[in-house]
From TrEMBL:
It comes from Halobellus limi. The modification 4-aspartylphosphate is found at residue 64. NCBIfam families: sensory_box (TIGR00229). The keyword Phosphoprotein applies. GO terms for biological process: phosphorelay signal transduction system. It comes from the Archaea. Keywords: Phosphoprotein. Transmembrane segments: none annotated. Pfam families: PAS_4, Response_reg. PROSITE patterns: RESPONSE_REGULATORY (PS50110). This is PAS domain S-box-containing protein.
Amino acid sequence: MAATDDPLSILHVDDDPNLGGLVKAYLERDSNDVDCTVTTETSPADALDRIRSGDVEFDCVISDYNMPEMNGVEFLEAVRETHPELPLLLFSGEETNDVAAEVIRAGLTDYLQKGMGTDQYTMLIRRVEHAVEGGGRFDPEAETELDGVGVVGSDERFEAADDTYASFYGYESEDVEGKHWTELHPEEEVEHIRTHVLPVVRRGGEWSGRSRGLRSDGSTFTESKMVTALDDGRLLIAVSELDDSKLASEEPK
């Protein structure tokens, strides 16, 4: 990690050299609040060699998704093997819904979808700053695998949910799409989420912990949940169902 007064050292990997040049130019410009230097690579294999050589100690790695040798998630997973704490960002044209599950399961730090104009680079540098300050990866409940993934839009309604996510709440995935997130939680839990979870996430942070889910039949269950902000005000949510009977037995008598 760079010393406090040193520029952040960022590695950007994209098979499009023109885009690599743009990212370098915008991230290194003097008007940014974050002082950084950007190294660009067009080959994931060459990027891995550079990282593993140790010639440069990078503070963050940014990668595209669609690349000839391996996709961005595969590349960043390979980086994780030798640098488990290094912040890793996916900066790609892929729709969030299409890569959300991969991002979560690979333990990546963040995902930002490419857009039009210069605002995307402003957002990218903010994501880099947050990733470096926050430490290297999504941090779900210790020893708990988060199995289901959903995406909530800026209108607070689900844009997508995979089959596993929907099944926890007693629905098919297509039934969850369009629902307001409050419909999947009992009333008291909705208040908790609005008060304690969303303020953290809306400031660019991540929240992980336990909450209560509401099934379609009216029953409730304990869920392990991670919530983080994506681009355009959307939320990425990952959950798994916890065994209430085991949790009860673990409580102090």
